[in-house]
Amino acid sequence: MKWSLTRTKWATIFAALVFFVIIELLTELVSRSILVDGVRWLIYIVLFLIVLTLANLAFSIFERDQTEKDTYVRELEYRRKLEEEANDEITAINEMVNRQLEELMRMADRLKDAYVGTINMLAIALDERDSYTHGHSDRVRRWALAVGKQMGLEGRELEDLATGAILHDIGKIGIEDNILRKPGPLSSDERAKIETHPVRGEQIIAPVKELHPIIPIVRNHHERPDGHGYPSKLKDIPLAARIVAVVDAYDAMVSERPYRPAMEAEDARHILREVSGTQLDAEIVQVFLQHLYEEEADGRPEPR
User: Fold this and answer.
1) What is the domain partition of the chain in residue ranges?
2) DSSP per-residue string spanning 187-227
3) In the list 77, 150, 197, 218, which could disulfide-bond 171, CB 3.0-4.6 Å?
4) CA-CA distance, 167 to 171, in Å (whole number)?
């Protein structure tokens, strides 16, 4: 468009220059009386026609430029209209996507609630199977979360720790009641069967993708730092499994069992100190004991 306006300007200047040159030439000829009257009028007529042609040319160029300008303006208006329509469509699409995302989030929340409810139901079913372990999973969960926070876990790590703590003994579902509730010492075969529950637990939760993060807890909560645990005699044990191991051991000691009465809290804490560094993680034992003493200082009874 800039080029077209420049072309109009130069065409007009050129026409004016030609006009003035011819006028000057004619004036010079007339002043010298070179031309007769008839020729002089012929030149006037030719000059008029030339000027008329040049003016027509200039106006034609101007009109063409104006047409191009109008076309350009119409194109701009059309593009702007297309952009507005596109923006309206994009806005409508965004609103639809946002509504769908909100619905998906609500569905995800409902599924999560159902998932958490199922986990709690499994834990309750496991605890209710044996009156001696009633509430065990929930106490392990509460203590494990307290220790996990002190150890720097947060967000999803704490969620997985809580779920793993609740389901750490899920593998015992496959152990016979006469073994779980036996009032006396277990035989070597019975002990061996009890020690399969971490692997059984892993096999139970493995088909559920959402539970994969807690497999290290379920499988390894009976491993020991000295490498004499089960089922794999690991020494490099995941942190969450080490936390559950400590609080699980403590709750087992202070809870009544078919084969022995519940220990006094201080006796159980003494045993934790004795096995610290060999059977249980020393740092976690220290953090857990400190938490128990803080609970006592605040007047909070141990969860039963």
Assistant:
1) 2-95, 132-297
2) PHHHHHHHTTHHHHHHHHHTT-GGGGGGHHHHHHTT--TTS
3) 197
4) 8
Say if residue 48 is exposed, middle or buried (CB neighbours under 10 Å; 0-12, 13-18, 19+): exposed
Q: Is 112 a catalytic residue?
A: no
Contact assessment for residue 137 and residue 147, using Cβ atoms and an 8 Å cutoff? no
Of 2, 69, 149, 172, which is the active-site residue?
Answer: 172
Distance CA 45, CA 18 (A): 15
Tokens of 48: 């008029």
* Per-residue pLDDT reduced to its tens digit, 20-58: 666 666 666 555 544 455 555 666 666 666 666 766 666
For the record, the structure tokens of 2 come out as 């800039």
Among residues 260, 259, 262, 265, which one has the least CA distance to residue 288? 265
Assigned CATH for 132-297: 1.10.3210.10
The whole-model pTM stands at 0.65
Closest CA to 137 of 229, 189, 191, 214: 214
